[in-house]
Amino acid sequence: PQIVLGSTAIAPEVIEVTKEMITVLQRRNPAIRPSLAIIQAGEDDGLLEINKKMARRIGLNVTQICLAKECSEIEIVTEVLKLSEDPGVHGLYLHLPQASLTSRVLTALKPEKDVDGLSDLNTGCLIRGDLSAGFVPPVTSAVLEWLSKHHVTLEGKTVLILGGHGTFEVTLRCLIERQGIEVVVSDWTSKNLKSQVMRADAVVVLEAGKKNLPPTWFKPGALVFSCDPTSKTGTLFNTVCMFTVHALYNNIANESVAESSSNSGLGYLTAAYRMKNVAQSCGRWLQEQEYQPWSLSSISLQPLTPVPSDIEISRAHTPKPVSQLAKEIGLLPEELEVYGRSKAKVRLSLLDRLHNQPDGKYVLVAGITPTPLGEGKSTVTIGLVQALSAHLKLNSFACLRQPSQGPTFWGESNLLCLGGAAGGGYAQVIPMEEFNLHLTGDIHAITAANNLVAAAIDARILHESTQSDKALYNRLVPSVNGVRRFSPIQISRLCRLGIDKTDPASLTPQEINTFVRLDLDPSKITWHRVLDTNDRFLRKITVGQASTEKGQTRETGFDIAVASEIMAILALADGLEDMKGRLARMVVGTSRSGQPVTAEDLGVSGALAVLMKDAIKPTLMQTLEGTPVFVHAGPFANIAHGNSSVLADKLALKLVGEDGFVVTEAGFGADIGMEKFFNIKCRASGLQPDVVVLVATVRALKMHGGGPNVSAGAPLPREYIDENLSLAAGGCHSNLRKQIQIAHLFGVPVVVAVNVFKTDTQAEVDLVCQIAKECGAFDAVPCHHWAQGGRGCVDLARAVTQATRRPNNFQFLYDLQLPLVDKIRTIAQKVYGAADIELSPDAKAKLDYYNQQGYASLPICMAKTHLSLSHMPEKKGAPTGFILPIRDVRASIGAGFIYPLVGTMSTMPGLPTRPCFYDIDLDPATEEISGLF
């Protein structure tokens, strides 16, 4: 047989190819450096030294995990799992005894890092012929390379694979056959072994046998390879000069160690191919990090007539697994935290990965002034994205607020005022029950965080009132194991107080007094507890009545959870660090000396960030037609800005790509939700909208045009059922015109979406569209999404795409450097149509205080009724000339706005005489919910 002791040419070729691969990768990303992690049992051996030297020569990082020689399976699995999840590791080399490579160990090995091709998935890919996903085992590559180098042509040759079973034998046989070579597999007990050896052009020994192979058995010029992973000695068989290598798992023969210095030997070549696999793995990882085109598979709708109830429609359609949806829109598995089958949190690391990806088009859905008849902004939002993605094949994302659970048990018509809604008819988010109930627990996290602040406030007042400075200081800065130190949050407080000391023993008595005494004025505490239930009897309560509270009673109250400042912060934060800073800045009250007291002063801000660390991630869901939706945050649209989160919008804008669309919804009418979206949310995010979709209905316009009032539960007056062009025209010329003008104040084009109801006549719809365009709308189109799904919104989708091509002259309504009172007056006059504002004495005093505290440059978030452009709910249409009364002014410093109170409004709704929970029930056998909607 031919003596094969090495090749001085092959390994350097592989090394140079691998180096070039790394050079190309580093041109794309200069910071990248492929990294190989080695898990070994026992000390280094010859083969390991070859691999480490090879890695250094090529330019790879090497991490070495040295386990004990007799390590347990669980120890190996633990290290494999840790390295498999480490994004800085691109290849994993298990330099372990074969007995340690159990199925549990190989299952823990991530296939994309399995550079030795050990996993079942990798083997399956190679057998199927898919070389793009798995890796060719390095020793297989080495054998194939040697075969090709020592035969001018491989076609028609015969290779005998002798001994051995399992992954290596299967992949080696498969890949050799794919080269056009005949493969014969045999073992040492075969009766035909001699004839098989004599016929073979090459013999690959996978397992040493007990008998010898005489030299006379071999065909002249035959190649012989030993790749036995069980041999420890590297002994040559009989007198045949074989090169012995244990490249897959163990030591290599002494011959290869000796020859490695001259760049020869099969072991050296195997190591070179392993490093090439690591570079290839790094390249695949880098490609995964880039923006991925969508492969969205929409779900076909078959709408029924008459349209069934929302819950019946939801249950009749099975959503795609959320992991499938995530893959279709280019999310990586590590960016997803799955909650059940149909929803998942998306990690913010996506923003870093797609940092350089251009944003898509940004579309805001707003509405005319709401009426009890409903306008359907949520259904339009969902119908629009269904039309864009499922019908026009344009990437699109809906971004919606999470509904408050309180109104869910109150009644359907009240959902929009406290969070958001799932849509309706054939334009809704599914599963509807999950959307409207706990979802992923964000509101519960807000409730817990908010009430932790409340508990901290009352506890601090109690302890300050009952302890001396020394006792307080000793408890706030205790000695632990003989060591006394400030916590990081206490050091921050010391810095704010101007005390530049870090040794607790060095503070003077005066400094200790300043440090330990927040001295909160109980009558000026602005922080309420919250609950996500409509409970009117908690609007005003007295706390501290137990004897253990030593007379520290005070009046306070509860708000609905979505009214918490923490909810507003969640919606405006652009990352975990920003959220943590905003939580720290929240003002909970005022000291007796007139200084604001913050959550950070209470020492609670770090704990709040911990409670909110998962809530900051948007929740991924889908529409009936399988298009993606982010559900995140749900700030009260009266006292807060009433929009879904900045983060949801930013993530979606990256995911849809430059030519895609993100459609988000603002609470209430354009005078409230849209104005706050522009002046508050867009300032926080730095994003600029491309178009406003203004939702209107014929029957709501009739009410603004002078139609009669509507009572809950009573039949609709005939004016809203029969054709009445004069009422519809009146509403268009008043409220619709005004809302279009408000959008134009910000320089954004408007498309009017006429949400068609079955009682509308064609003449009424045509009239509204005509007048809308006369009032300055870019376009106005009827929408039938409730009954038809995305197909009923295709005309709106086309109008929106055309509007986004127009030049955008976006501008804010006011400069932040204007005095607070002038900013309030600007909104009142330009947006609401007021002649002027009137400040109460309390409001004037508060404005002076906020100016003194340095809050004058914050934007304004008007707390006003949503039922009228004015402060008078009964005034429909577009009233003018009125004086807007400002009865009080409050501040959400963490959220970052000042909110003047116009009139009186409740932040804790109450239940009606017959709440809808009378109809809600659960089937214990099927767990099916009934009566929700």
Automatic annotation (TrEMBL):
<comment type="similarity">
    <text>In the N-terminal section; belongs to the tetrahydrofolate dehydrogenase/cyclohydrolase family.</text>
</comment>
<dbReference type="GO" id="GO:0004329">
    <property type="term" value="F:formate-tetrahydrofolate ligase activity"/>
</dbReference>
<keyword id="KW-0067">ATP-binding</keyword>
<dbReference type="Pfam" id="PF00763">
    <property type="entry name" value="THF_DHG_CYH"/>
</dbReference>
<dbReference type="Pfam" id="PF02882">
    <property type="entry name" value="THF_DHG_CYH_C"/>
</dbReference>
<dbReference type="GO" id="GO:0035999">
    <property type="term" value="P:tetrahydrofolate interconversion"/>
</dbReference>
<protein>
    <recommendedName>
        <fullName>formate--tetrahydrofolate ligase</fullName>
        <ecNumber>6.3.4.3</ecNumber>
    </recommendedName>
</protein>
<dbReference type="InterPro" id="IPR027417">
    <property type="entry name" value="P-loop_NTPase"/>
</dbReference>
<keyword id="KW-0436">Ligase</keyword>
<dbReference type="InterPro" id="IPR046346">
    <property type="entry name" value="Aminoacid_DH-like_N_sf"/>
</dbReference>
<comment type="pathway">
    <text>One-carbon metabolism; tetrahydrofolate interconversion.</text>
</comment>
<dbReference type="GO" id="GO:0004488">
    <property type="term" value="F:methylenetetrahydrofolate dehydrogenase (NADP+) activity"/>
</dbReference>
<dbReference type="InterPro" id="IPR020630">
    <property type="entry name" value="THF_DH/CycHdrlase_cat_dom"/>
</dbReference>
<comment type="similarity">
    <text>In the C-terminal section; belongs to the formate--tetrahydrofolate ligase family.</text>
</comment>
<dbReference type="InterPro" id="IPR036291">
    <property type="entry name" value="NAD(P)-bd_dom_sf"/>
</dbReference>
<comment type="subunit">
    <text>Homodimer.</text>
</comment>
<dbReference type="GO" id="GO:0005524">
    <property type="term" value="F:ATP binding"/>
</dbReference>
<keyword id="KW-0547">Nucleotide-binding</keyword>
<dbReference type="GO" id="GO:0046394">
    <property type="term" value="P:carboxylic acid biosynthetic process"/>
</dbReference>
<dbReference type="InterPro" id="IPR000559">
    <property type="entry name" value="Formate_THF_ligase"/>
</dbReference>
<feature type="domain" description="Tetrahydrofolate dehydrogenase/cyclohydrolase NAD(P)-binding">
    <location>
        <begin position="139"/>
        <end position="281"/>
    </location>
</feature>
<dbReference type="GO" id="GO:0004477">
    <property type="term" value="F:methenyltetrahydrofolate cyclohydrolase activity"/>
</dbReference>
<dbReference type="InterPro" id="IPR020631">
    <property type="entry name" value="THF_DH/CycHdrlase_NAD-bd_dom"/>
</dbReference>
<dbReference type="InterPro" id="IPR000672">
    <property type="entry name" value="THF_DH/CycHdrlase"/>
</dbReference>
<dbReference type="InterPro" id="IPR020628">
    <property type="entry name" value="Formate_THF_ligase_CS"/>
</dbReference>
<dbReference type="Pfam" id="PF01268">
    <property type="entry name" value="FTHFS"/>
</dbReference>
<dbReference type="GO" id="GO:0005829">
    <property type="term" value="C:cytosol"/>
</dbReference>
<feature type="domain" description="Tetrahydrofolate dehydrogenase/cyclohydrolase catalytic">
    <location>
        <begin position="8"/>
        <end position="116"/>
    </location>
</feature>
<keyword id="KW-0554">One-carbon metabolism</keyword>
